[in-house]
Amino acid sequence: MSFELTILGCGSATPTSKQFPTAQLLKMQERFFLVDCGEGAQQQLRRSKAKFSRINHIFISHLHGDHFFGLPGLLSSFHLLNRSTPLHIYGPSNLKAWLDLTFGSTNTNLVYPLVFHETQNKEKALLFEDDKVEVFSFPLRHSIATTGFLFQEKPKERNILKSKIDEYNIEVCDIQNIKNGKDWIAANGKIIANTELTKDPTPPLSYAYCSDTSYLPKLNERIHKASLLYHESTFLDVDKKKAKQTKHSTALQAGKIATLTESENLMLGHYSVRYDDREAFKAEAQQEFINTFLARDLRRFTVSQDAIEFEDLNASKSEVDKL
Amino acid sequence: MSFELTILGCGSATPTSKQFPTAQLLKMQERFFLVDCGEGAQQQLRRSKAKFSRINHIFISHLHGDHFFGLPGLLSSFHLLNRSTPLHIYGPSNLKAWLDLTFGSTNTNLVYPLVFHETQNKEKALLFEDDKVEVFSFPLRHSIATTGFLFQEKPKERNILKSKIDEYNIEVCDIQNIKNGKDWIAANGKIIANTELTKDPTPPLSYAYCSDTSYLPKLNERIHKASLLYHESTFLDVDKKKAKQTKHSTALQAGKIATLTESENLMLGHYSVRYDDREAFKAEAQQEFINTFLARDLRRFTVSQDAIEFEDLNASKSEVDKL
């Protein structure tokens, strides 16, 4: 199994003609989660050919415009497209008042239910849970209340061995219990250990999202062995003072966090427009953490237990950002 | 002299990957006016290579998202770029409260003065005036309070004939009076008629913007002989009932308004995504008005007294919308 992460925008602060502000689409266990929603996110969703009507949950890390100014447009489009499925939005409390006024001002009564869930940035908190996936928020340290998000698969069922079903003539009604880890009692009363009947499931995958934040080593209390860690790297080490002042991070610091959290892979993004060369971000982070990748607009990552791959969607020669 | 109009977006309602919502940049007499500001306008401004720091006046026709959801992003970028020049915004009263809450929520104290001018849609009103240009609003008829805008050059000075300056030895101090249309009195007391000394100035140019609106024949009381009339054409005549219901217009109706207002040229836009063929809009309007042009994203029109021309910016083959 794998999850898919599509970068809709990886820029910071002021968008350019080639760089959209932050937005990401995560597909995990067939659930679609939108993580932040900078201006133009809905256009990028269309370019990525995502089935965006399947997004039922939107997570907003903080109320800086480059992370949420795309919400009114996207929510309006859902309205105009006659969406009926409830849409859940998770974000700071002020966001609700702003969305209410937005739709009040435009005289719009949304045709679908909008369910708002207020986040807090004091401690790790469960925001969403179903049978396969959990989503947590956790505090980051920025110039305004900001949370990161941790998306993780729930532990999976054990894989029952077909050969053992045949050998012991196990009935269908017992199989779920065995998948859940229980031993099995044969007709003759003999107890067959679960470990004989099953093999370990693939470990759950997880995606940790950290933007925007200053260097925060204690993130290792919130994130442990993420399959993929996204950590902002607005600056390079040469500008680490600027990073500290503005409560952002450098690529080197992002690499350190990947090491501290024992993550499998690191993705960088939220690059300041002051730098021309994005490879420099990668090289810098790799001084601390080798499995480092660069976010780019419309880059899609596929992450499984053993591998991480990416492809650039819409990568016609004339449109590829040379950076 | 001429004015320049750059179409940043010409779509309606739901943006697609190829069509931005409404925004236009008008350059008239070296003044830059932004007319509506749909989501993504700031990116399109960058793509058009406009000097967007020179925009000092933004006109918002009405509070439907596809006409103003790009404002927060653009205004934030001005802030981040340390703009100091005052920015004037003209729009419906609710817009101010929304912008205030937007920047309140994001904890942003804009570093430049934002001056809000409330529009009304009862009657024609002067919104802006300086020595060379006037801008008026006028009521349109839509599902929400909506105004059109009329940008017009002020009458220009008469052109003084150099040969006459020499012939009569006219002194510099008299020239401005003559340019203003006054007769001139020679040293011998003879009155020289202004018409002998000057020739007519080029007539003032004007641009009339009508979006969104249902068919409104009495627009001819507001607009007369516009050098260029932009009139929305969300629908084709085959869907005229739909146009009436939603208080939009058809291309045929736009052509009729161009005729009624005796405009020189007509530009269509605000196309519904339901149609594949934009040439059909042009053909339909031309049944009523021959000098019809199509708005397209990043198309720049240059309008003078005798001519209208356009070029498509950024028109690499892979990016040109085939529509």
Structure explained in plain terms:
Two copies of one chain form a homodimer. The first copy, chain A, is an alpha/beta fold and 323 residues long. Chain A folds into two domains: 2-156 and 202-312, Metallo-beta-lactamase, Chain A (4-Layer Sandwich); 159-197, no CATH class. Helices cover 23% and strands 28% of the residues of chain A. The first copy, chain A, contains nine helices and 19 strands. Chain A has helices at 41-47, 71-80, 94-105, 162-168, 172-179, 194-197, 240-246, 251-260, 279-286; strands spanning 2-9, 23-28, 31-37, 55-59, 87-91, 114-118, 125-129, 133-139, 147-153, 159-160, 184-185, 191-192, 198-199, 206-210, 228-232, 266-269, 292-294, 299-304, 308-312. In chain A, strands 6-5-4-3-2-1-18-19 form an eight-stranded mixed sheet. A seven-stranded mixed sheet of chain A has the order 7-8-9-14-15-16-17, covered by helices on one side. In chain A, α8 crosses α9 (279-286). Residues 317-323 of chain A have low confidence and may be disordered. Chain A binds chain B through residues 13-17, 20-21, 39-40, 42-43, 46-47, 63-66, 69-70, 72-73, 76-77, 80-81, 94-95, 97-98, 101-102, 104-108, 143-144, 316-319, and chain B through 13-17, 20-21, 39-40, 42-43, 46-47, 63-66, 69-70, 72-73, 76-77, 80-81, 94-95, 97-98, 101-102, 104-108, 143-144, 316-319.
